[in-house]
């Protein structure tokens, strides 16, 4: 393992451990806020120290290329995002963000220009924690951004367009604007797993096969609220008792699928009073699988369970699964093997910029273990050895693809 | 049916339909508030118009006796309560309150003094909707009131003692205080059913056999919150999935009891987010039965279902069942029969002053139908014919007992 590279990465992470730090613990850098601006400026400074060519786009995505003269050449892009959830950890987004910069900077320092230009990116936003839209940075970069989102308001009533304009103006004082969209031939992303699989199996590197599609339902069970003491059992229409039977059937039916992940995470009872028979229950169902046909089949089973009752089903989210590019999966796997790191194919149940980008561009993704599988929490942690492993796999892969 | 009596009652109810009226609908007379004071004063005025002897106690219970010289004679007491829940209906409490006054007043007018003195009572509070204590009026009158409740605060931060003192002082300007506790030999209460049974079976009068005991549990199921996308199904400890199985078993086990009424009315999931596996679920279980042994057996079954898991059970309420006095049940039943009214034995699943009083004194209770079983709601309604029927049964019963 190259200790110079991993020292650079740890030093950068240390610098960022003060940017967006919140009490009592964790980090909050919501897109376009002051700490986010500080982060993108720090990223640009670090890129300049590596001698990279720094530029940005109208969305506030910051790029660092290993050539000053890109024009419209096809490039290999690698990176992640600068924003965090509220009270998030240090590693989600930022690890891949900084590791990409270090990998390209180090390759440039040691090997000079590449045959295919390499560009690191620090995407503006992926988490959706300020405005009700996710992946706006990578969507903009790949021409998938829906401009109606510019009218979205944050909790303080500031709209996306206004927040973006002010932040981009500040960044633009020191970072040049490139109006032309990059021509990206391949995208790579390094990320902490945010789940417990690699750690539990003692595997050092996850070669991501795909990112699961996600279907979210909101299921409403209607009954009749009534007095818990005076209403005989045979004269009740108890929405929670019905919901409980429905949930029981859903759990049973969905457990039959091999890989499907499903969660009833949210459930609200109305009026939710001890001595009142529930009149209405609303619960969510989150289902994820790499295979869209499995999701469709699962939905059909849920619909069948909910038929013939006073139950409504709303589909609130329906994101298609994404597949990583086979040639990039192979190259990442080969890199891990050459580095003598244990590896496994793994699917991602969480969304990533790589998911959105893969709809347009061949994409590869590398995971490293998360201690306890914890993420979106100040307790999020990945060991230095694992951080270095991921960086080495990314660097080796980039070298194979670009030099 | 005696139309004079029922006209008096309807006229009084009409007067009260302006006392505590709130927007958009319903009535709010919380104990000791201005509208409650107005109500007790109006009650005292009506009693005086009947020529009854009006007095009160330190709690603000207002009494009306058919003799000026009670001393410590054993009396028959009948009445209900003046307070309402927030946005309650016209009939809960007030119907029995005013009907008792009319019955005693009318008997006094037509038949003069009775062998056993009759006393109507308008209890101060039964609903517990201002302070976290219920039945304080009837508990005080029967020496069961726990004085530590005087320190309880309402939502505005006023304590029970202060609120009581001010209201009682105002009432005392026009109603004489009697410091000596009444010697009550029997208590009768007329009330709307607050449930759907009488209406559904087309029966005119319910002769209450008892008031169900009530056991309330709070059941906490502990699991481990985690990411819904990244946590494999076999590495989860989903508190809602466990709770669902537990609830399913509870529903099945408790449905085996013939008369037990049970309700899971309140259920909260933590953190209650669509894409987070529930880490904790807390739900209530309300169980009611006339037989304490049935409640104990049901509790044992719930404990057994919840054994061997990370589940905690708290008993938050444990009220003993109460039985109405057999001789009063017989007299009420005979009265209804003489009046050619259809009748049925019925248990009360809701609490009443009669419940508290029955622990000390032989008690009888009469129900009349509630349209749709609706109560504690502005939609609460009982037809005039049913109001008159209940009054007639009460009046006939009092006549049998006292003259």
TrEMBL record, chains A, B:
Cofactor binding comment, as recorded: Binds 2 Zn(2+) ions per subunit.
Record-listed Zn(2+) 1 binding positions: 81, 92, 191
Necessary cofactors: Zn(2+)
Molecular function GO labels: hydrolase activity, acting on carbon-nitrogen (but not peptide) bonds, in linear amidines; metal ion binding
Coiled-coil ranges from the UniProt annotation: none
Keywords (A to Z) from UniProt: Hydrolase, Metal-binding, Zinc
Pfam families: M20_dimer, Peptidase_M20
Ligand binding (Zn(2+) 2): 92, 127, 376
Entry annotated with the keyword Hydrolase: yes
Sites where the protein binds allantoate: 216, 275, 288
Identification of the protein by name: Zn-dependent hydrolase
Taxonomic source organism: Nicoliella spurrieriana
Lineage: Bacteria, Bacillati, Bacillota, Bacilli, Lactobacillales
């Amino acid at each position: 393992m190259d200790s110079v590279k991993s020292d650079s990465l740890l030093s950068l992470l240390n610098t960022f451990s003060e940017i967006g730090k919140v009490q009592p613990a964790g980090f909050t850098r919501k897109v376009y806020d002051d700490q986010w601006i500080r982060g993108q400026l720090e990223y640009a400074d670090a890129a300049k120290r590596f001698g990279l060519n720094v530029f940005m786009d109208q969305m506030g995505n910051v790029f660092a290329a290993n050539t000053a003269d890109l024009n419209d050449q096809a490039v290999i892009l690698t990176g992640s995002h600068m924003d965090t959830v509220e009270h998030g950890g240090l590693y989600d987004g930022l690890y891949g963000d900084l590791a990409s910069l270090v990998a390209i900077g180090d390759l440039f320092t040691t090997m000079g220009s590449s045959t295919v230009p390499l560009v690191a990116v620090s995407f503006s936003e992926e988490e959706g924690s300020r405005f009700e839209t996710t992946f706006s940075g990578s969507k903009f970069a790949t021409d998938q951004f829906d401009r109606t989102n510019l009218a979205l308001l944050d909790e303080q009533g500031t709209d996306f367009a206004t927040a973006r304009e002010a932040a981009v103006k500040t960044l633009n004082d020191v970072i040049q604007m490139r109006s032309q969209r990059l021509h990206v031939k391949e995208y790579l992303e390094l990320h902490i797993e945010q789940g417990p699989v690699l750690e539990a199996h003692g595997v050092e590197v996850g070669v991501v096969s795909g990112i699961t599609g996600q279907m979210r339902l909101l299921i409403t069970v209607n009954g009749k609220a009534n007095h818990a003491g005076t209403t005989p059992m045979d004269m009740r229409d108890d929405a929670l008792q019905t919901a409980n039977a429905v949930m029981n059937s859903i759990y049973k039916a969905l457990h039959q699928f091999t890989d499907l992940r499903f969660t009833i995470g949210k459930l609200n009872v109305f009026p939710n009073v001890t001595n009142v028979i529930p009149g209405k229950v609303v619960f969510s169902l989150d289902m994820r699988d790499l295979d869209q046909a499995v999701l469709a089949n699962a939905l059909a089973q849920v619909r069948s369970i909910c038929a013939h009752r006073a139950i409504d089903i709303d589909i609130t989210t329906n994101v298609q699964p994404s597949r990583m590019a086979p040639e990039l999966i192979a190259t990442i796997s080969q890199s891990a093997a050459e580095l003598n790191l244990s590896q496994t194919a793994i699917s991602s149940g969480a969304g990533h910029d790589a998911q959105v980008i893969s709809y347009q561009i061949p994409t590869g993704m590398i995971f490293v273990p998360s201690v306890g599988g914890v993420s979106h929490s100040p307790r999020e942690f990945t060991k230095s050895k694992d951080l270095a492993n991921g960086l080495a796999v990314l660097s080796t892969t980039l070298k194979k693809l670009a030099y």
